[in-house]
Design the sequence.
């Protein structure tokens, strides 16, 4: 019995010693982890670096690392696939818009050509009308033509007189009011 009491006493003293060392050690480790984390050190990354050097632990740490790397690679591949799909969609939209721009530019060129044709047609119509009017004034008596031209718009009178032969033009200007004839003559000279 004395032996069993002694063994029990040894067990109690061993558990007291173990508790006296183990619990403060756990507390100290926890406190150290908190302090290091607050100071900006990633303790678990550092521990993973050191465990990869230990032969028995390195395979488990590396397999976890490989799994996390593989999942990260898969995630990044999915992101790349999404971005490529977005790029293709944007490229097709860009091509569509470029086609619209090209069509509109062709329409602008066609409209400019139509406008130029219309202007030249108007000019030729105007020139033919002015030529007809000039022919009429050329055939008129200068005394009758002068008052009509004086009452016309000055620019139109210049256009008509520009198409009249110079001899008849001089006779018509001679029959006009001196000031009006001088204005028209100066415009005719400038043209």
Sequence:
């Amino acid at each position: 019995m004395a032996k069993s009491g002694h063994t029990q006493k040894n067990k109690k003293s061993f558990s007291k010693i173990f508790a006296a060392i183990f619990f403060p050690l756990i507390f100290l480790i926890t406190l150290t982890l908190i302090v290091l984390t607050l100071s900006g050190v990633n303790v678990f990354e550092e521990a993973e670096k050191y465990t990869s050097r230990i032969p028995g632990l390195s395979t488990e740490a590396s397999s976890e690392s490989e799994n996390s790397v593989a999942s990260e690679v898969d995630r990044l591949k999915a992101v790349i696939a999404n971005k490529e799909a977005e790029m293709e969609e944007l490229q097709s939209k860009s091509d569509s818009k470029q086609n619209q721009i090209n069509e509109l530019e062709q329409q602008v060129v066609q409209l400019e050509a139509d406008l130029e044709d219309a202007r030249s047609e108007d000019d030729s119509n105007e020139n033919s009308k002015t030529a007809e009017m000039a022919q009429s004034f050329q055939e008129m008596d200068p005394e009758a033509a002068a008052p009509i031209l004086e009452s016309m718009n000055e620019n139109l009178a210049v256009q008509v007189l520009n198409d009249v032969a110079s001899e008849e033009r001089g006779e018509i200007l001679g029959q006009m009011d001196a000031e009006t004839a001088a204005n028209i003559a100066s415009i005719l000279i400038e043209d």
Notes: The longest helix spans residues 55-139. The chain has a mean pLDDT of 81. The chain is about 90% helix and 0% strand.
